[in-house]
Each structure stands twice: as structure tokens, then as C-alpha cells.
Amino acid sequence: MFEVVERRELAENIYLTRVKAPRIANSAKPGQFVIVRADKLGERTPLTIADYDASEGTVTLVTQALGVSTRKIVARE
């Protein structure tokens, strides 16, 4: 599991999540995405990398919570 550094609601059902993931942040390129699972048995959900900071080792994701999987993802602490 990766550590959630920041999570905030930008608008109704739209969340910004910053995750501590140094290896991903160091190799991220514009237009890439990550596969996220809410739990071990969860569905694999592709989310676009909205921003990344290699010096801090963080990746920023913006998620619209519509389905079961994305609701589980944004509910994680």
C-alpha cells in the first residue's frame, strides 16, 4: 500500500489524492496512468496521473467517484 499524503474534495464526487510513490514519481511522463486497486480483491482501475513531483516522491490523481471501485478508492484513508 502507498501512503496517502493529501486528499481533498474538489467538487461533488471529484477528489484530489496525493500519494507517496517515489519510484512512480521518478519515472512518470505526461499522459501516463497508474492502475489502482481499493483492496486485494478489488477491480483494477486505471487513473491518469494529473501531476507528479519527483523531488517529493508524490503522484497526484484526480478521481471522479461514480462506480463502486472509485468510491472505495476515494474512501481509503
List low-pLDDT spans: none
Spatial strand order of the main sheet: 1-2-5-4-3
H/E element sequence:
EEHEEEH
* SS element count, helices: 2
Total strand segments:
5
Which class do the helix and strand fractions yield?
alpha+beta
Overall average residue pLDDT = 92
Kindly state the percentage of residues in helix. 10-25%
Largest sheet: 5 strands, antiparallel
Over all CA atoms, what is the radius of gyration? 12 Å
Distance between the termini: 11 Å
Strand content: over 45%
Shape: globular
Supply the key terms.
five-stranded antiparallel sheet; 77 residues; 5 strands; 18% helix; alpha+beta
Write a compact overview of the structure shown.
By secondary structure, the chain is an alpha+beta fold. It contains 2 helices and 5 strands. It is 18% helix and 47% strand.
Structure description:
Strand 1 (3-11) and strand 2 (14-20) form a beta hairpin. This protein starts with a strand and ends with a helix. Helix content is 18%, strand content 47%. A five-stranded antiparallel sheet has the order 1-2-5-4-3. With 77 residues, it is of the alpha+beta class. The relative contact order is 0.26.
Spell out the blueprint of helices and strands.
Elements: E1 3-11, E2 14-20, H1 22-27, E3 33-36, E4 45-53, E5 58-64, H2 68-75
Antiparallel strand pairs: 1-2, 2-5, 3-4, 4-5
